Amino acid sequence: MTIDIQLRKVQEMGGATLLVSLPKEWVRSTSLKKGSVLSIESSGDGGLLIYPAQNSSNSRPEKEIEIEYPSKFETAGLPGEITGAYLLGYDLITIKGKHRISSKDRETIIASIKGLIGLEIVEEDALSITSQFLVDNTAVEPSKIFRRINAIVRAMVSDTIKQLASDESIKFESVAQRDDEVDRLHFLIVRLIRSAIRDPRAAGKFGLSSIDCLDYRVATSSLETAGDYAVELSNAISNLMSVDDKAKNDLTMISEMLDSIQDGALRGFIAKDYTIAREVREKYKEFDSMLSSFRRENGSAKNFAELLHIADIIEGIARCERDIADLVSPMRPA
Fold it and tell me: Whole-model pTM?
């Protein structure tokens, strides 16, 4: 997309009225004439977004795509194609076959559609399945989804460590199911952010600049990775044969520090508060020191390899959170 930047002087008319002329090329391409109605919206960053009223976001044309069945992509297959179309912002996704869709493939297609938030099957026959995205792109704020993902990941880690401390059996399936929800929310926020980048009106409604959109994309990916680490942590702890009380207490303290880092990373990122982000970086240094002591003090333990693996996983989660805090720049206003 080519951006044509033009500078124009503001003219004064009638004392308090200020006027600025519109570019001739844009007027011609949008068929504007005297009496045409324009939609003027604030972008949230000091700019204005101007569109012909008939092209407002309420009447945004739907994007449609038809996916060939059987899939021509051996690696991704139909699930990958459906997810790809969803992330690219397609509103209507049709799986179209030259012959009847098999029962097994139909189940796979339906499961893939149900795994994507807002996507619902609206038409289905022997040769095709059509799904439609039914959520308004401007109705759900990325910050709210981001908070939800962060809360799920924090709970996954906290619950796993608590079960270790209380000698309860690890409910690995529960943790894995919550990671599925993290993935679903991750896909949704990626779709919304991509839509906001393409449509400045959507970004304006969210109060996001182009840099904000990029930051959300990176931060959400970090959270999704942290969720994967949480599943790995649950699996590692569920396979841990035994652990002494000191190691349990140490892991509990480490997890409490991690939870504090997760909380700070979220607050700093959402508020664009560099002071909070800097505190997160300082806490990470303390956290890293705690992990080093844990590895050193358990060096002679019979299950040292398992404990070392657990420490590495927890460190991976903390790095993801630190990366989120690193997105907050001291040069960016809150």
Answer: 0.79
